[in-house]
Amino acid sequence: MMSIACDPALIACQVSRLVDINGSWSWNGFFSTIIATLIGAAFSLAGVWLTFRLQRRHRDEEVLTDSIAAALKRIADYASGMRSHQDQQDRVAEDRGDYFKRTGEAVFYPPDDLNVSMALDIARMRARGDNQRALTQFVHTYGQIGTTTDIRRRLDMLEELSAVLARWRSGVLSSAEVSTSLEQIRTP
What's the pLDDT band for 31 if we cut at 50, 70, 90? Predict the structure, then answer.
């Protein structure tokens, strides 16, 4: 075959040279190559999609775990503040005098529970499906704990709530077991 002189920068020229080198043009070969390329691209696209989906699920679980860890820290900080407040109230009640003037100790006010409530709500917002339903139960239980007037009982309930939350997140408790455990916390 005779080669046609053409501009090597043009794709048509490059295709023409390939045809000259291979001998002849085959439509079957052309369409087979196109179909094989499209099938390979589809498999690659499916693999990329699956990888991104698994990575997103893993990232969502990490974000939820971090949110729950933050909520557990806030619960611990709140309980510590409540315990300090109650201990001081007990010392003041036993003193029967002017405790603060005599000791020079500053008054411990009860801590605000807004940080705990917000941390649990943030975790619930970041959760999906069954996790979100479970966290809604935790938020509801925490709300009921806040109405308990006996500080010692409230501290015990907070400790139980933290334990159930940690065991649930680590996979020790199922959603059904969480419901039962939280119901036991809510009923004295």
Answer: confident
Dihedral angle, C-alpha 8, 12, 15, 16, nearest 10 °: -80
* Residue-level pLDDT at 146: 87
Using CA atoms, how far apart are residues 48 and 53, in angstroms rounded to an integer? 9
Interval 157-176 mean pLDDT: 93
CA torsion angle 37 39 40 43 (round to 10): 160
Contact between 37 and 96 (Cβ < 8 Å): no
Q: Residue type at 82?
A: M
Count CB atoms within 10 A of the CB of residue 58.
Answer: 10
CA distance 166 to 171: 9
The pLDDT of residue 74 is 96
In whole angstroms, what is the distance from residue 70 CA to residue 125 CA?
Answer: 14
Put residue 4 in one of left, alpha, beta given phi > 0 → left and psi -120 to 50 → alpha.
Answer: beta
Domain ranges of the chain: 11-45, 60-186
What burial class does residue 52 get, using C-beta atoms within 10 Å of its C-beta: 0-12 exposed, 13-18 middle, 19+ buried? Answer: exposed
Count other Cβ atoms within 10 Å, centred on residue 138: 21
Question: What is the structure's pLDDT at 73?
Answer: 96
- Measure the CA–CA gap between 28 and 36, rounded to whole angstroms: 12
| 77, 103 Cβ separation under 8 angstroms | no
